[in-house]
Amino acid sequence: MTKGWKGESKRHSEVQRKSNKVEYKKKIGAWVIETDLSIYDESLHHNTNPHRKYDFKLVWKTPDQELMHQYKQTSGYAKNGLKGFERWKEIAYELQPNYRKEFLYKNIKRGVGGKVPIIVEEYKEDGSVYNFQEGRTRSLIAKELGAKRIPILQAFKRKRPDDY
Questions:
Q1: In this structure, is residue 32 part of a structural domain?
Q2: Position 4 in a domain
Q3: CA distance 139 to 152
Q4: Does the predicted TM-score (pTM) go above 0.85?
Q5: What's the distance, Cα to Cα, between the start and end of the chain in Å?
Q6: Which residue range is the domain that position 94 belongs to?
Q7: How many angstroms separate the CA atoms of 160 and 139, rounded?
Q8: Whole-angstrom distance, CA of residue 7 vs CA of residue 151
Q9: CA distance 105 to 146
Q10: Number of domains in the chain
Q11: Largest Cα–Cα distance of the chain, in whole Å?
Q12: How far is CA 66 from CA 18, 42, 70, 151, 160, in A?
């Protein structure tokens, strides 16, 4: 079992108060609560701003559950052209540059350090899934390293005040 997968906090809403600022927990084992996608990180960093674009929920899934979630977001043409789920996973892995795969292997295997960007699933204002794939390689590597569960940040788009 890789260090850092169990025993970590499951609640992203756990906060520390310093002065009047509320801060989210920054790390979960190898994973950092950063996405490397500015559209989400803006809302993460300003989580008390009533005008932020997203609310978040941290969930734990098996790597296979997350891979299937991502596969379902793939367009029908791409699915048919790849001849199924297994081929889709192979292509997702092959397309990633070697330096990126090495970085992910090293940091997920160590299980500490908070250097791997967390995987994001986006949901629309009505709660339906937004067709967005992100995190395939991280899910594949975590599975290969024997991770039972991985943290997933679900981003729920907020209604804008003028939408009410």
A1: yes
A2: no
A3: 10
A4: no
A5: 48
A6: 22-158
A7: 32
A8: 12
A9: 12
A10: 1
A11: 55
A12: 34, 24, 6, 10, 29
User: Cα(41)–Cα(54) distance, rounded to whole angstroms?
Assistant: 10
Contacts (Cβ under 8 Å, ≥6 apart) of 54: 40, 43, 155, 156, 157, 158
Residues in the chain, overall count: 164
Q: Each residue's pLDDT tens digit in the chain (164 positions)?
A: 333 333 333 333 333 333 333 344 567 778 888 887 888 888 888 777 888 888 888 899 999 999 988 888 876 655 556 677 787 788 878 888 888 888 888 888 887 666 888 899 999 888 888 877 788 889 999 998 898 999 999 999 887 665 54
DSSP-derived pairing of the beta strands 31-32 and 116-117? parallel
The encoded tokens of residue 120 equal 């994001």
Task: Evaluate whether residue 127 is within a structural domain.
Answer: yes
Supply φ then ψ for residue 39, to 5 degrees: -60, -35
What are the residues whose beta carbons fall under 8 Å from the beta carbon of 89, sequence distance 6 or more?
67, 71, 136, 140
Q: What amino acid is encoded at 161 in this protein? A: P
Instruction: Please identify which residue in the block is written with the tokens 């008390």.
Output: 48
Check: CB of residue 64 under 8 Å from CB of residue 57.
no
